[in-house]
Design brief:
Order of helices and strands: HHHEEEEEHEHEHEEEEEHEEHHH
Bound molecules: fe (ii) ion
Strand content: 15-25%
CATH superfamily: Ribonuclease Z/Hydroxyacylglutathione hydrolase-like
Distance between the termini: 22 Å
GO biological process, one term: glutathione metabolic process
GO molecular function, one term: sulfur dioxygenase activity
CATH class: Alpha Beta
Protein name: Glyoxylase-like metal-dependent hydrolase (Beta-lactamase superfamily II)
Strand order of the largest sheet: 1-2-3-6-7-8
Largest sheet: 6 strands, mixed
Organism: Rhizobium paranaense
Low-confidence stretches: 1-27
Mean pLDDT: 91
Number of helices: 10
InterPro entries: Metallo-B-lactamas (IPR001279), Mito_Persulfide_Diox (IPR051682), POD-like_MBL-fold (IPR044528), RibonucZ/Hydroxyglut_hydro (IPR036866)
CATH architecture: 4-Layer Sandwich
Structural class: alpha/beta
């Protein structure tokens, strides 16, 4: 089975161990503090409150339309306020052929056509994290549909690490300024009349966010479908122990909350792609992280599995573009935009 989202970057980690160890230490410390405050986790309580309020009021529950990209196994979600034309688009895809270096907009065109045909008002373009398996189409969507582009505030740390790896010049600002909004844990926002909040769920990457919108939760790559498990943790700044704690936090949300995945790869024995489940189904049945799996058991499983996985096909173009908010690097003096391949780094 093709499992590009979980491939190994162990060599990269060794080369950059100093940077990453510092990052992991910071992530672990911050997360440990968050976990010690679990009993007074106000941000999680607020998120649960939004879900419960939506469970009692259909007007607070988003209408969903999801688009699956078979080339990258990515699901982009259009999250609609049922009582207005307002919507958000989560995790869009810019098609990219690495052999020719050509971008295509088939996937983003489907999103744009849908939004236009429904006369939607796109208020937000939400990224759950800087993806390593596909390029974001956020700039294309923003040009045609508008909306504020948002990601987690920790994207700054991702920009620092990958800015070094790609030897990006001073033109590349490591301050998140490529995005309109940098969210942090507990931030709240609205999509029309829908209530929404943000939970910082590091582990897969340091900047991962889960969005809670009405009764719907978007965990990014923190969780896959219950029968497929969880995402790899060996990217720069990733950490299995931190991911476990983020998952434990998410699975304290109300069981009835709908959960929409960012990817699906068809678990063994399942013939169809799927991306909708519930918090309860994850808590009770996720094959990697269901209730009862200890932190040490999870960390051992995740680290052993990550060590066997291959490199994502599009990691180099994806990260180079996504750290820039989905924009390609600036054109060189001949007017051509180039993507770099660091040799013998990964
Ligand atoms: Fe990812």
């Amino acid at each position: 089975m093709f499992v590009y989202s979980e491939c190994s970057v162990s060599r990269l980690l060794k080369i950059h161990s100093c940077i990453f160890n510092v990052n992991m230490y910071v992530v672990a410390n911050r997360q440990e503090k968050a976990m010690s405050d679990l009993e007074v986790d106000k941000n999680l309580s607020n998120a649960s409150g939004i879900i419960r309020q939506a469970a009692e009021n259909p007007a607070k529950r988003p209408d969903m339309r999801s688009f699956f990209d078979p080339a990258t196994f990515t699901v982009s979600h259009v999250v609609r306020d049922p009582s207005s034309k307002a919507c958000a688009i989560i995790d869009s895809v810019l098609d990219f052929d690495p052999a020719s270096g050509r971008t295509m907009n088939t996937s983003s065109r489907a999103l744009i056509d849908y939004a236009k045909s429904e006369s939607l008002e796109v208020q937000w373009l939400l990224e759950t994290h800087a993806h390593a398996d596909h390029l974001s189409a956020a700039p294309l969507l923003q040009a045609e549909l508008g909306g504020q582009l948002a990601i987690g505030r920790e994207i700054i740390r991702v920009q620092e690490v990958f800015g070094k790896i790609f030897n990006a010049g001073t033109e590349f600002q490591r301050d998140g300024s490529q995005f309109d909004q940098l969210f942090q844990d507990g931030d709240r926002f609205k999509i029309g009349n829908l209530e929404a909040t943000v939970l910082h769920v590091p582990g897969h990457t340091p900047a991962c966010l889960a969005y809670v919108i009405g009764d719907a939760v978007f965990p990014g790559d923190t969780l896959f479908m219950p029968d497929y498990g969880t995402a790899r943790c060996d990217f720069p700044g990733g950490d299995a122990r931190t991911l476990y704690r983020s998952i434990r936090r998410l699975t304290q949300l109300p069981d009835e909350a709908r959960m929409f995945m960012c990817h699906d790869y068809k678990a063994p024995g399942r013939d169809d792609y799927a991306w909708e489940t519930t918090v309860g189904a994850q808590r009770n049945g996720n094959i990697h992280a269901r209730e009862g799996v200890t932190e040490d058991e999870f960390v051992k499983m995740r680290n052993e599995r990550d060590a066997t996985l291959a490199m994502p096909k599009l990691i180099l173009p994806s990260v180079q573009v996504n750290m820039r908010g989905g924009k390609l690097p600036p054109a060189e003096d001949n007017g051509v935009q180039y993507l770099k391949i660091p040799v013998n780094m990964l």
